[in-house]
């Protein structure tokens, strides 16, 4: 074992983000950088001695090298066991499940999620705690504290581990078990959903396209959809994980999954389309000529989850991140269950799930999940949709139309302004924040503000407070805009502007989102002095 000395903490100024640590890959490859984060994590949890960890990643460039480093550091820190996905692959929800299944001390996930991969793109690492979920703020704060003072790390001199061979190996007293990344996850899914019913749907001629986006869900989707549920070969496309995700962004939204969107809008569209992201925790749902926004998807799933065996007893409650539309709230109200509003990031759902207060959770950023794990879960959402489609024997478009007719429609879109100079983005946010109290009652682009505040969350379980979680502008007539800065970007600042407009049940639900949201958008551009602050009002990405 070698004790390496670090002269200067490489993390100066790096605060914990929405989801672990994300940086350019070359930064992670700098000597001592990854090591500093891993040692700080071990230190923050009272050391690794005697502990068991799950380790895996989404297969992006530097995944295998990072895993070798982590295993050698776990060995040198006295950990007793590491459970590793074969080839270094594990989806984020699979890691969460394995942590829970084995009662382990947590896991390390190598991924920058939906960000592109490659030597000049992004890499990331996050620590998940023993409940299977992302480290809560108290834990990420302790990791950050450690990075500020860390002076050395411990690493084994053992040769590289063979990540391709299933079974057990040893280095320096650390037992390493290489497992099939897919098997346990498939068992979990088959315990929640009616696989026979979904298989019958496929055998009736129901057609589907699942775009794995060259990322980690390819092997999972092939086993579940094609082998277990009998969907024809070719249902899953881009199924082999590649180090640079085929040169694309493994981000399941209409912009980055455009080939799938084009197919679903074409004459030859299959009945159902879906995609997942780099690490398999996000999902996109699209029917023939019917894109389902993530906020609507959460609401439809909440309204119909009881049709799947795993949720036949109904839901304890639902939770959504604050910028997610209020569509799920209307379903919760009708079901007579609680609806919680949390800050952005899955870590905030953990306590609610552990306490049994909620069963389903979702975020507008294409994340949906339930109490089966403590992460959002892309394939889970796809399978719940399939189970519902098999039970209702209706198209996605029919289910959506019926949903809006019952609950009304929350038109929704997120506008992202990327690589904004940090100073300019901060000035916009601070300028708006300073004026919040004076805004209610004022009118912008014909819309009157009824409320304006900065979202602060008090965790109903442990009472912890998370302030400054986004600025909210609420308009008379059912409009809302939310502004916040991304905590996962790696270049400058990303300003996210979330736009919503409610149209009541019985109203017109046939507008395009762009048309329905034009008023809220214009009012927001004016209130924030967007042009003056960041020099543009047109976003880079609209989802
Ligand atoms: C984004 C999303 C957020 C999500 C986070 C991690 O964060 O907005 O909803 O939880 O990414 O997603 P931000 O701070 O950039 O807005 V991912 O799929 O890590 O796994
Ligand atoms: Co992800």
Main attributes?
17 helices; binds alpha-D-glucose-1-phosphate-6-vanadate; 7-stranded mixed sheet; Alpha-D-Glucose-1,6-Bisphosphate, Chain A, domain 3; 27 strands; 3 domains; TATA-Binding Protein; binds cobalt (II) ion; 543 residues; alpha/beta
Describe this structure in words.
This protein is an alpha/beta fold and 543 residues long. Helix content is 33%, strand content 25%.
What is the general shape? globular
Number of structural units classed as domains: 3
This entry's quaternary arrangement is single chain
Quote the distance from N terminus to C terminus: 49 Å
Highest CATH level, the class of the largest domain: Alpha Beta
Mean pLDDT, to the nearest integer, reads 95
Q: Bin the strand percentage.
A: 25-35%
- List the ions, cofactors and other small molecules found in this model: alpha-D-glucose-1-phosphate-6-vanadate, cobalt (II) ion
- Taking pLDDT < 50 over at least 5 consecutive residues as the criterion, the unreliable ranges are none
How are the strands of the largest sheet arranged? 2-6-5-3-4-9-8
Provide the CATH architecture of the largest domain. Answer: 3-Layer(aba) Sandwich
Number of helices: 17
What is the fourth-level CATH superfamily of the largest domain? Answer: Alpha-D-Glucose-1,6-Bisphosphate, subunit A, domain 3
Overall strand count: 27
Would you spell out the secondary-structure blueprint of this structure?
Blueprint: E1 2-5, E2 21-24, H1 25-29, H2 33-44, E3 52-57, H3 63-76, E4 81-89, H4 92-101, E5 107-110, E6 122-128, H5 137-149, E7 152-155, E8 167-171, E9 174-179, H6 183-192, H7 195-203, E10 208-211, H8 217-228, E11 236-237, H9 258-264, E12 272-276, E13 283-287, E14 290-292, H10 294-304, E15 317-321, H11 327-335, E16 338-342, H12 350-354, E17 360-363, E18 367-370, H13 378-392, H14 396-407, E19 409-420, H15 422-435, E20 443-444, E21 447-454, E22 457-458, E23 465-466, E24 471-475, E25 479-485, E26 493-503, H16 513-527, H17 530-534, E27 541-542
Parallel strand pairs: 3-4, 3-5, 4-9, 10-11, 10-12, 15-16, 15-17
Antiparallel strand pairs: 1-7, 2-6, 5-6, 8-9, 12-13, 13-14, 17-18, 19-26, 19-27, 20-21, 21-24, 22-23, 24-25, 25-26
Bound molecules: alpha-D-glucose-1-phosphate-6-vanadate and cobalt (II) ion.
């Amino acid at each position: 074992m070698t004790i390496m000395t670090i002269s200067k903490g490489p993390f100066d100024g790096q605060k914990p983000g929405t989801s672990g640590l994300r940086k350019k890959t070359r930064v992670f490859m700098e000597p001592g950088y990854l090591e500093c984060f891993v040692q700080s994590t071990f230190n923050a949890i009272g050391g690794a001695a005697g502990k068991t960890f799950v380790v895996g990643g989404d297969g992006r460039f530097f995944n295998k090298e990072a895993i070798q480093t982590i295993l050698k550091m776990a060995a040198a820190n006295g950990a007793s066991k590491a459970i590793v996905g074969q080839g270094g692959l594990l989806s984020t929800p699979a890691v969460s499940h394995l942590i829970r299944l084995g009662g382990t001390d947590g896991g390390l996930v190598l991924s920058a999620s939906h960000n592109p991969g490659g030597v000049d793109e992004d890499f990331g690492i996050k620590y998940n705690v023993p409940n299977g979920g992302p480290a809560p703020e108290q834990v990420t704060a302790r990791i950050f504290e450690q990075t500020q003072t860390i002076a050395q790390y411990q690493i084994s001199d053992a040769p590289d581990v063979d990540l391709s061979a299933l079974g057990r190996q040893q280095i320096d007293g650390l037992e390493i078990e290489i497992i099939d990344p897919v098997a346990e996850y498939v068992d979990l899914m088959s315990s929640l959903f009616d696989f026979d019913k979904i298989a019958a749907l496929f055998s009736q001629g129901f057609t589907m396209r699942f775009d794995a986006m060259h990322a980690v869900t390819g092997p999972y989707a092939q086993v579940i959809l094609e082998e277990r549920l009998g969907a024809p070969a070719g249902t899953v496309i881009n199924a082999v994980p590649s180090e640079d995700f085929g040169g694309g962004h493994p981000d399941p939204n209409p912009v980055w999954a455009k080939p799938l969107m084009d197919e679903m809008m074409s004459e030859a569209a299959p009945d159902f389309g879906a995609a997942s992201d780099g690490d398999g925790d996000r999902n996109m749902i699209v029917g023939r000529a019917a894109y389902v926004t993530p906020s609507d998807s959460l609401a439809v799933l909440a309204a119909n989850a009881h049709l799947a065996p795993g949720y036949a007893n109904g839901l304890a409650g639902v939770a959504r991140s604050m910028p997610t539309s209020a569509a799920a709230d209307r379903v919760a109200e009708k079901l007579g269950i609680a609806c919680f509003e949390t800050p952005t990031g899955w870590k905030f759902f953990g306590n609610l799930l552990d306490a049994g207060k909620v069963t389903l959770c979702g975020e507008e950023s294409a994340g949906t999940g339930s109490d089966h794990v403590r992460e959002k879960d892309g394939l889970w959402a796809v399978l719940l949709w399939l189970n519902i489609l098999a039970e209702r024997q209706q198209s996605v478009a029919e289910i959506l139309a019926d949903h809006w007719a019952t609950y009304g429609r929350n038109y929704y879109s997120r506008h992202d302004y990327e690589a904004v100079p940090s100073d300019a983005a901060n000035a916009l946010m601070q300028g708006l924040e300073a004026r919040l109290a004076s805004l209610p009652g004022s009118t912008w682009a014909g819309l009157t503000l009824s409320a304006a505040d900065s979202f602060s969350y008090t965790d109903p379980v442990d009472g912890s407070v998370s302030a400054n979680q986004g600025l909210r502008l609420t308009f008379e007539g059912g409009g809302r805009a939310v502004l916040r800065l991304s905590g996962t970007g790696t270049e400058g600042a990303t300003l996210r502007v979330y736009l919503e407009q409610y149209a009541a049940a019985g109203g017109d639900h046939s507008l395009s989102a762009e048309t329905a949201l034009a008023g809220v958008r214009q009012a927001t551009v004016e209130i924030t002095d967007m042009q003056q602050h960041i020099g543009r009002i047109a976003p880079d990405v609209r989802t």
